[in-house]
Amino acid sequence: MFTTLISTSDVAARLGDPSLIVVDVRHDLAQPDAWGENAYGQGHVPGARFAHLDRDLSAAKTGQNGRHPLPNPEACARVFGRLGIDASKQVVTYDQGPGMYAARLWWMLRWLGHDAVAVLDGGFAAWTREGLPVTTDVPPVAPATFIARPTAATMDAGAINASLSSSAYLLLDARARERYRGDVEPLDPVAGHIPGALNRPYSENVDAEGRFKPAAALAADFDMILSGRSPQDVVHYCGSGVTACHNLLAMTHAGLGGSRLYAGSWSEWCSDPERPVEKGN
How far is it, in rounded angstroms, from Cα 66 to Cα 167? Predict the structure, then answer.
């Protein structure tokens, strides 16, 4: 069973295995409506089916719940069942490269009790770079019954706000450093970060080719950030609850499991002017 990352060679060796479900979640925040589907239509891993970040892996936006709200377990179960996923399946998910969108589906499945899910290390970029097979054929998908059993811990804005004075949790912001500092904010109406949060850009989890760094190197990096605290004290967030999952994946791959996700993330946090904002380092 693969539970964090899977290599291109391991996926290639199992193509055609009915117990393997491959899900393409390529996406572009600048072209959210159709870029991923168009990329899928132009070529994908054989047998892969497509899931859309906004329509399949996010709930409806209210203006107060962030840019990629987490769907409820029942809605997720319907999507996963439509993709053919049940308890007997090994799921592999990939995006265009470093895993920022694939990690979201990885976390959502684990959140609902499905541990047999892994991100294709290096994504579609690595797959094509190695000359592995690509097809435009859309596979027939037999619907399955996915039973949601929520297991992974989450945090909401109220609990985080109530904890700020006690530093009960270690907040870890996955956005780029200039967004964390509040120097720029290209996506949300307010710049800055949650007071007391530390910064770990998700991009630092991968090498120049978009593959995850070795588990030992990731463990050393995160151990420095933890400074003796337990991984269970960590709450990850980002702009909208997507790239935060990349840090969750990196920590889990490094043997530092048990941290939590604030799914609403900065886009939800800053929607309420009563919530405090911090800038700088």
Answer: 24
The Cα–Cα gap between 102 and 117 comes to 10
Question: How far apart are alpha carbons 122 and 64 in whole angstroms?
Answer: 34
Q: How far apart are CA 262 and CA 6, in angstroms?
A: 26
- For the stretch 234-252, pLDDT in tens is 999 999 999 999 999 999 9
Burial 252-263 (b: 16+ CB within 10 A, else e): bbbebeebbbbb
Look at the alpha carbons of 114, 83, 261, 246 in this order and tell me if their dihedral is positive or negative.
positive
Q: What Å distances lie between residue 219 and 184, 190, 202, CA to CA?
A: 30, 32, 14
Q: What residues are labeled active site?
A: 238
For 191-227, the pLDDT digits (tens) are 999 999 999 999 999 999 999 999 999 999 999 999 9
Domains contained in the chain, CATH given:
5-129 (3.40.250.10), 154-269 (3.40.250.10)
pLDDT on residue 137: 96
pTM of structure: 0.96
Burial degree of 145 (CB within 10 A; 0-12, 13-18, 19+): exposed
Q: Region of 214 please: left (phi>0), alpha (psi -120 to 50) or beta.
A: beta
DSSP assigned state of 129: H
